[in-house]
Amino acid sequence: MDTLNLRAEIAKFQLLQDQLRDRWRNSDQFDLSDADIVVIPSISIDQRELLKIEGFSHYEERLLFSLIRLRNPRTRLIYLTSQPLHPSVIDYYLQLLPGIPFSHARDRLLLLSTYDSATKPLSQKILERPRLIERIRQAVDRDRAYMICYNSTTLERDLSVELDIPLFALDPDLLEWGTKSGSRQIFAESGVPHPDGSLLVHDAKELAIVTAELWERQPDLKRVVIKLNEGFSGEGNALLDLRPLKEMAPGLATHPQRVSTILNKFHALHFESKAETWENYGSRVPELGAIAEAFIEGDEKRSPSVQGRVNPVGEVEILSTHDQILGGPNGQIYLGCCFPADEEYRLRLQDLGLRVGKTLAKKGVIERFGLDFVVVRHPNTGKWEFQAIEINLRKGGTTHPFMTLKFLTNGRYDLASGLFYSQQGRAKYYKATDNLQRDHYRGLLPNDLMDIIAYHQLHFDTSTETGTVFHLIGCLSEFGKLGLTSIGNSPQQAEEIYRRVVKAIDDETKPGSSVRNLSMHWNSGY
């Protein structure tokens, strides 16, 4: 696209965003108002980084919680995917809607697919299909339509302009504030504590230099985290252990010697991604850039997060806090979360999140942001010490469980306590995961899962507002992977419900277990 056309497109995009701001000003409850919502669950990040995640092609299902918006009888929704979704998955979500006839909700839902399994973002696939774009245009009332997405890039901006409807997401020109290096700059501007680290570099030798300089600033440093600037879900992180390099420590070797040793040691990095190698990782550094950051040590260490939103008129809202469940070789890969975060520090998380949100708002960022921390309990005082790790300017692993709870209960988040209350005044808690994965789950079809849910009564009960909501159901058969959110009226009940679900699926699929009589699903088409 030439410069003139690009400027015209950006100007049109800004006009569409102005429409969104005007609508927000004129509606007390924009999120609950009548609307035509176009859901684009495209994961528009570097596709080679996504390949590190098993079943990533099914992550387009992560935004299926949006179907619960159909509880508003005047909302219509269009959901696009690369490949068609299994009918029983859609039926499952629509049957969660309290007080809405299934047929009424289904009539207000349009499912569209590109029928394209290529490894490229869904938004790009849609842009390559003018007839599909025209069909979306004809299906919506543009005076009340807007588009939501997983993350916002130039692809989503282009699609917004093509559809002539606003995008409820940040301007992609501001994406740098959600990178590893951009996050560090926002933390510094916000006065939020964060680990010592480097500026962004694009060369392995420069990466070795800034790592050596970091070690020289902190001679007692034990480990350094190397981060690709646009890594996803911790998969772009690697750990450099400095302890075997004692002879290169500051004061015992020269700076050039230290740099040379670190450069050679990159081949022995401990990668979070199981299949990663330095040959591949190092080739991404010139393209994506990387930083070096001090690894936070501690005997009692946790990884909480705070989720917020900047609305289209620049107001900052704190949505939730979580204690994240991390895994991987060095505990840096997101596996799941518990809501809310520990009462000892969740209000402090809110304060720091609000501080960062205001800085982001000043830069023009709108919509969702997630802020990840490492907290360590001081052995003498017992107090928690906070270090901000990164900002995610997108919907993340904590988004869909919280929004599922919010849409199902139509409840509210209470800033004074950091708790979420249903309309009945009950405090709600949950445990969620994207990564319940077992080899013996492989081969389970969506209908098989529905049978297990029904037989063991694992479904979400709208009368008690407790139970489990499942997602990533499409991952099951090929990858043995499933997501779920177990909701209870106490942390203990949420944990108990979660464990009951895992046990039931394990019992049904463990080697040697017999297959019970199952329903035939005559009307499913499968």
Q: What attributes does this structure have?
A:
four-stranded parallel β-sheet, 16 helices, alpha+beta, 33% helix, single chain, 3 domains, D-amino Acid Aminotransferase, Chain A, domain 1, disordered C terminus, globular, 526 residues, eleven-stranded antiparallel β-sheet
Question: Could you explain the architecture of this structure?
Answer:
With 526 residues, this protein is of the alpha+beta class. The chain has 3 domains: 3-169, no CATH class; 196-294, no CATH class; 301-509, ATP-grasp fold, B domain (D-amino Acid Aminotransferase, Chain A, domain 1). 33% of the residues lie in helices and 22% in strands. It is built from 16 helices and 19 strands. Strands 9, 10, 11, 12, 13, 14, 15, 16, 17, 18 and 19 form an 11-stranded antiparallel beta sheet that branches. Strand 15 (412-414) and strand 16 form a beta hairpin. The longest helix is centred in the N-terminal third of the chain and has 23 residues, at 3-25. The radius of gyration is 24 Å and the shape is globular. 45% of the residues are buried. The model is unreliable at 520-526 (pLDDT under 50).
